[in-house]
Amino acid sequence: MAAKIRDDLEAPASPGLDAYTGLLIVSLVATLVGLIFLFLDYSSFQGKVPAVTKAAVSAPATQQAPATQQAPAPTAQQAVPPAQQAPAPGQQKDQ
């Protein structure tokens, strides 16, 4: 009986490393590498503001679309009837 009580009081074993811990370590390393590159880029400016140049943008040549015939607008007699209402929940649709 005393051995059972002693076993219950011992700390449970800690869980081992799993895939999520590996992903956490990979993301930490990637963040640190990104910060190093950010510092290297920032330090290359040495207090100078980079020159801004405007890009020359020319408007594309427009072409006229070929003439097409348009269908006539529907008349009141050709109008589409309104959609039927869906049956209430639990009711079957009449066929």
**H/E element order:** HH
Structural class: mainly alpha
Shape: flat
Residues in helices, as a percent range: 25-40%
Number of strands: 0
- Tell me the β content: under 5%
Please state the CA-atom Rg, rounded to the nearest Å. Answer: 36 Å
Terminal CA distance: 75 Å
Q: What is the arithmetic mean of pLDDT?
A: 78
Low-confidence stretches: none
Q: Helix count, per DSSP?
A: 2
The biggest beta sheet is recorded as: none
Can you walk through the features of this model?
There is one protein chain. This protein is mostly helical and 95 residues long. Helix content is 35%, strand content 0%. The chain has 2 helices and no strands. It has helices spanning 2-9, 19-43. The N and C termini lie far apart (75 Å). The model has no long low-confidence stretch (mean pLDDT 78).
